[in-house]
Amino acid sequence: QKPRKATPQTGEDTLNGHLPPGWQSYMSPQGRRYYVNTFTNETTWERPSSVPGTPKSPPANSPSAFTVNGYHISGTPVHQLDSGHMSLRKASGDPQINCVTFPHPDIMPEQQLLKPSEWSYCDYFWADKKDSQGNNTVSGFEILLQKQLKGKQMQKEMAEFVRERIKIEEEYAKNLSKLSQNSLAAQEEGTLGEAWAQLKKSLADEADVHLKFSSKLQSEVEKPLLNFRENFKKDMKKCDHHIADLRKHLASRYAAVEKARKALTERQKDLEMKTQQLEVKLSNKTEEEIKKARRKSTQAGDDLMRCVDLYNQAQSKWFEEMVTTTLELERLEVERVEMIRQHLCQYTQLRHETDMFNQSTVELVDQLLRKVDPAKDRELWVKEHKTGDIRPVDMEI
Amino acid sequence: QKPRKATPQTGEDTLNGHLPPGWQSYMSPQGRRYYVNTFTNETTWERPSSVPGTPKSPPANSPSAFTVNGYHISGTPVHQLDSGHMSLRKASGDPQINCVTFPHPDIMPEQQLLKPSEWSYCDYFWADKKDSQGNNTVSGFEILLQKQLKGKQMQKEMAEFVRERIKIEEEYAKNLSKLSQNSLAAQEEGTLGEAWAQLKKSLADEADVHLKFSSKLQSEVEKPLLNFRENFKKDMKKCDHHIADLRKHLASRYAAVEKARKALTERQKDLEMKTQQLEVKLSNKTEEEIKKARRKSTQAGDDLMRCVDLYNQAQSKWFEEMVTTTLELERLEVERVEMIRQHLCQYTQLRHETDMFNQSTVELVDQLLRKVDPAKDRELWVKEHKTGDIRPVDMEI
Questions:
Q1: Where is this region: Disordered (chains A, B) (predicted)?
Q2: CB contact, 8 Å: B90 with chain A?
Q3: Is the pTM of this model over 0.95?
C-alpha cells in the first residue's frame, strides 16, 4: 500500500499558484490536504507559498481541542491529540525522520495546532531539517536554540554599540571643557566682557551635560544590556544536552525495535520453513521442533511489542519535554525583546533629556548679551583710563 | 603769583574721605574746586575717589553750553567754551604739559564737559599721562588708539575661539557618522531589528545636525568676526600719524615762542642797560643807540606776539582734530561692541537651533520602539525557519 499521492489538481493550482520547488501535496484520509518538503522533510498542513514567510491564515477548522496549560503535559499527548481517531494498524514502516515516527500519509490524523494563531515554537519545529546538500540534518530544537544564542549575541553587540557612543560623548565633553578654559579674548571688559566670559563658560556647562549623558548611558543602558542573563549560555547548554539525550535514548530504542523486528521475521521464517518441511516429510523434524519454533516465534512477537512500547514511551517523554522547553524558549525570547525595547527607550529618553539640558546652557549667555551696553562699557573704561578732563586754553603772552 | 592752593578742608574730607595718593585739591577763582594728579598730570573737575572708576555723578551745574554737532567744530573752540569769560593776561608761564597749554590755577576758566553724562572720549583725554616711574609720557590719544587696536585683537581672538568650536563639532559629527555605519547587532530582525536600525541611523542624523551647526558657525559667526574692518590697523595708523603730526607742529611752535621770549628778554635787558648807562654818563652811547635798542625791543615784542598767535592756531587745530577724531573712535567702538554682540547672539541662536534639530533625530526611533511586537517578530521568524508542524505519533507494530 503506497501512500495515496494526490497529484496537483489543475483547477486548484490555477487558483493558488504552483508549489515552491521540492514540495509535494498529499491528501489525508479525512480529506485534508497536507504538504511535504522533499528536500528538508518539513511537513505541514499549510500550503507553502513561493515566498517564504508570507503570512497565511491559520486553518479554518481548528477548534482548540487541546490547550497547553503551563509547561507540563500529562499522559500521552500524541494519543490525546488525535481527536477521536484510534490509531489503526498500519503497513510496515511509519515514516520516520531520524528515529522520530510521523504519521503515514494514508492515515494522517487530524491535528490541530497546540497554540493556534500564535506561531508558537511548540507547533512548528517537530521535524529535523536537511541542509542544502541534503547530507546532514539539524533538529528543529537546535534551530530554536541557535536563535536564543543569537539573541544573546545581539544583546551583547548592542551594549558594545552603546559603549562606543559613550566614548564619543566623553571625547566631546573633554574637548568642550578644554576650550572653555581657553583665554582667547579674556581681556574684553565691561558688559561685553561678561557676556563673552559666560559664553566660554557655557561650553563647560555643555561638557557637563554630555558627561552626565554618557554616565547615564553606562548605568542605565549599557550595563543592563551586558548583564541581562549572565548565565544564559550555560543554561542553553543544559537545555541542549537534555533534549539531545532524549533523542539519543529515542534512537537507541528505535534500534532495539528494528532488531526485534528482524528477530521476529527470522523466527517466523524458521517456523514456516519447518512447517513446510513437515508437510512434505522432507526432514525428520518432529512436532516437538515445530512447537519450539512456534514458541520462539511467539516470544519474538512479544519482544517486539515490548520494544515498541518502550520506544513509544521514550518518544512521549521527548515530545513532552519538547513542548515544555520550546514554550520556555519562546517566553525567554519575548522577555528578551521586551527588555531590549525598554532599554532602547531609555536611550531615547536620555537623548531627549540631554538636548533639553543643553538648551539651558545658553540661557544665561542670552541674558548677558541683552545687557550689553556700549555706553556703560565706555563709562567704565573711561573712568579707569582717563588722563584729564580740563581742556587746554590759549597761550597768553 | 603762586597758584592759590586750597589745603583740604577738614569738614569736607570728613564728608568725602581722603584723596587718593598724589592728588591735590585747588580752588578756582570762581570758587569751584578742581583736582590735579601730581604723578600723571591728570586734571579734573571731579573729585577722584580711592577706587578708580567708581561712578560719580556729573557736576550739578553743567548746562550744555556747547554741544558738538557732528565731528567738525568751527572757530576757536577754546574761546567759545570759556562761557563768557575773557582770557585775562596772566603771569609768565601757563602750566603746559608737553607743549600743550592748560589753564593756570589762578584763572581756571569755567569749563563744562563737551558731552555731559556721556563719558565721551572727547572730554577725558586732554592731558598726557606719565608712566609709573614718571619718565615717559603717553598722550591721551595714544591711550584711545591702543584701546581701538585691542578691540580689533579681541574680535580676532573671538573668531579663533569659534574656529576651535567648529573643529570640535566636526570631530563629533565624524565620530557619530562612523558609529552609525557600524554593523553591531545588524542581525536583529523583525520590529525590534527595525527599531535598532533606526536608532543607529539616528546617529547619522545627529552628525548632520552638528555638521550644519559647524557650517553655520563658520559662515555666520567666525567669518564676519574675522572680516569686520579688515583695514582697521592701517586706518588707525593714519589717525595716529595725523594727530602726532599736529602735536609735533604744536611743539615746534612752542619752541619758537620760547625762543622769541628769550630774544625779547635780551632786547629789554639791553635797552635797560643802555638807558642806565646814559643816565650815569658811563659810556659814550648816543641817544641814537638807545633809540635803536628801543626799536629792537619793540620788534622782539611783536615777534613774540606773532609766535604766540601761530602757537595758538596750531593748538586750536590740534584741539579741533582731537575732538573730531576721538568722537570718531568712540563711534567705532560702539559699532564694534554692537557688531560683536549681534554675532554672539547669532551663536546662541545657532546653539538653540541645533539642540532643537537634535531632538527630532530620535522621534522616529521612539515611533519604531512603540511598534516593537515580540509576537509579530516570532511569527516572522517562525514562518521563515520552521521545520514542520505535523507532530509525531506512536509507532505501530
A1: 1-27, 44-63
A2: yes
A3: no
